[in-house]
Amino acid sequence: MAGIGPIRQDWEPVVVRKKAPTAAAKKDEKAVNAARRAGAEIETMRKYNAGTNKAASSGTSLNTKRLDDDTENLAHERVPSDLKKNLMQARLDKKMTQAQLAQMINEKPQVIQEYESGKAIPNQQIIGKLERALGTKLRGKK
């Protein structure tokens, strides 16, 4: 224990204080009631649409009229009937099931079903995979 020297005690008082309450703590119901009991002046104010979602849904948006006036019929492009027939014929010529073809092109069998039924939205990448797997052109002239 050489080099430490004599031990001295510090007799200075240490004062520990609480932090001032935060804004959220001042608004707490307990704090408001305590201030009322103490006779402090309290200002209460009701905010417009506070705690509701009325502001988001009650007002009409700027696009409402534009959407109402829009009479254009929008629909997704579907697989053409000649592509459906060509796909089905090429698959049957190779004696493959929809599941086998789907596995060859790394897609789900549902994708092949949608293409053959005409419900799919045409994706040129998938059509290209199908053409390579079946070894025939499905779109355009043969």
TrEMBL record:
Keywords, comma-separated and alphabetical: DNA-binding, Transcription, Transcription regulation
Bias (Polar residues): 51-64
Region listing for Disordered, in residue ranges: 51-72
Keyword Transcription regulation carried by entry: yes
PANTHER family for the chain: ENDOTHELIAL DIFFERENTIATION-RELATED FACTOR 1 MULTIPROTEIN BRIDGING FACTOR 1, OS08G0366100 PROTEIN
A Pfam family assignment: HTH_3
Xref: PROSITE patterns: HTH_CROC1 (PS50943)
Similarity comment: family membership: Belongs to the MBF1 family.
Molecular function (Gene Ontology), one example: transcription coactivator activity
GO annotations of cellular component type: nucleolus
Positions of the HTH cro/C1-type domain: 87-141
Identification of the protein by name: HTH cro/C1-type domain-containing protein
Record InterPro entries: Cro/C1-type_HTH (IPR001387), Lambda_DNA-bd_dom_sf (IPR010982), MBF1_N (IPR013729)
